[in-house]
């Protein structure tokens, strides 16, 4: 296995910091980002920074060693205020042909004023590992859109296109994968029973439990489920069935709620026994 040229982060960060103005100081959360991703994925990460004083006209710069793998939004920050955190979305994109290895660098905050580069930068480490998703079913393409329930070639209850999306979007998060699989399976049931009021109400109780399972594993579960829904409801027929399903719930109050401390019990698998990688 060959490794990409390694930058000694501590020395590099100190070198940059020595060229920065001591004030204002930037506090990053987290203090550094160290992640592992497989070839052929694109994954978002959230970070934030808080300045120790007001600074005008701030923008971001990614060191060249990371520029082909990392993008940040927004890049033009503008004016920042003392003690006010600023959130950033980091998108790491690893091409399928990317060489396996470790890639390091930093994100710098720079102002066009005389203060120049602001201390301290955010160290980034990306460990690129081999893509082991070859066991996934093939992409069904348009054939998978011809029927309500689509194609499930391995018979696991999850449509092939949905299974591929979940694994490729969350390649290192096995618990979240399993929780989203269960959530997607229940969507299949919901679409099937959409013309039956009683069955629809039972299905929404079960879906509430699947949602609680996802929420027990990841923060801001709504964000991930919002992204998954259009993948599941990707045809006119599936959307119409989902609308019909929701009409069956008029006036119904689900009884699937658990105490937040028990949400993990809503999972159909042992969360603690499932390794993340």
Helix-strand blueprint:
Layout: H1 9-18, E1 21-29, E2 33-38, E3 41-51, E4 55-62, E5 70-73, E6 76-80, E7 86-94, E8 101-111, E9 117-129, H2 160-169, H3 174-192, H4 197-217, H5 221-232, H6 236-247
Parallel strand pairs: 1-9, 2-9
Antiparallel strand pairs: 1-3, 3-7, 4-6, 4-8, 5-7, 8-9
General description of the model:
By secondary structure, the protein is α+β, with helices and mostly antiparallel strands. The protein folds into 2 domains: 9-129, Immunoglobulin-like (Sandwich), CATH 2.60.40; 134-266, no CATH class. It is built from 6 helices and 9 strands; from the N terminus they run H-E-E-E-E-E-E-E-E-E-H-H-H-H-H. It has helices at residues 9-18, 160-169, 174-192, 197-217, 221-232, 236-247; strands at 21-29, 33-38, 41-51, 55-62, 70-73, 76-80, 86-94, 101-111, 117-129. Strands 1, 2, 3, 4, 5, 6, 7, 8 and 9 form a 9-stranded mixed beta sheet that branches. The longest helix has 21 residues, at 197-217. The chain is globular. The two termini are 20 Å apart. Residues 1-22 have low confidence and may be disordered.
The geometry reads as: globular
Q: Return the average pLDDT rounded to an integer.
A: 87
Total strands: the figure is 9
Major sheet attributes: 9 strands, mixed
Our count of helices gives 6
Question: What is the string of helix and strand elements?
Answer: HEEEEEEEEEHHHHH
- Write down the domain tally: 2
Compute the CA-based radius of gyration. Answer: 23 Å
Q: Strand share of the residues? A: 25-35%
Structural class: alpha+beta
Poorly predicted runs: 1-22
Helix content: 25-40%
Tell me the distance between the termini.
20 Å
């Amino acid at each position: 296995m060959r490794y990409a040229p390694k930058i000694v982060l501590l020395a590099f960060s100190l070198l940059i910091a020595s060229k920065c103005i001591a004030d204002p100081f930037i506090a990053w959360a987290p203090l550094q980002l160290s992640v592992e991703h497989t070839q052929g994925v694109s994954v978002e990460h959230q970070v934030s920074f808080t300045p120790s004083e007001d600074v005008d006209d701030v923008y971001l710069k990614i060191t060249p060693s990371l520029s082909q793998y990392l993008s940040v939004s927004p890049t033009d920050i503008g004016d920042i205020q003392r003690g006010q955190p600023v959130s950033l979305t980091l998108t790491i994109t690893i091409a399928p042909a990317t060489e396996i290895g470790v890639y390091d660098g930093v994100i710098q905050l720079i102002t066009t004023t005389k203060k120049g580069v602001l201390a301290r930068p955010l160290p980034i480490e990306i460990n690129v590992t081999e893509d082991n998703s070859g066991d996934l079913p093939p992409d069904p393409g348009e054939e998978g859109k011809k029927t309500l329930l689509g194609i499930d070639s391995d018979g696991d209850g999850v449509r092939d296109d949905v299974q591929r999306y979940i694994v490729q979007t969350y390649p290192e998060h096995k618990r979240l994968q399993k929780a989203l699989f269960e959530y997607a399976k229940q969507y299949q049931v919901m679409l099937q029973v959409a013309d039956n009021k009683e069955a629809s109400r039972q299905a929404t109780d079960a879906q509430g439990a699947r949602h609680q399972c996802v929420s027990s594993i990841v923060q801001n579960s709504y964000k991930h489920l919002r992204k998954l829904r259009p993948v599941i409801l990707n045809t006119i027929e599936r959307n119409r069935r989902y609308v019909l399903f929701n009409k069956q719930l008029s006036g119904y109050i689900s009884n699937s709620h658990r105490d937040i401390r028990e949400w993990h019990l809503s999972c159909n698998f042992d969360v603690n026994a499932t390794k993340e990688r």
